[in-house]
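Before relying on records like the one below, remember that each one covers exactly one chain. Contacts with other chains, cofactors or solvent are not represented anywhere in the record.
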Amino acid sequence: MPEDEMDTEIDTERARAGIALHRMRFVLAFGLAGALIALLAAWALF
């Protein structure tokens, strides 16, 4: 690899390969809560 390519700096969003949405934390929380409720309901009914 040429030396000039090794020192390339890229911005944070590009390094992450996407954008970080604040909403994703809520998607994870509601998904986990829904799965837990479904498991508890299945356990209680069967």
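The chain has three helices and no strands.
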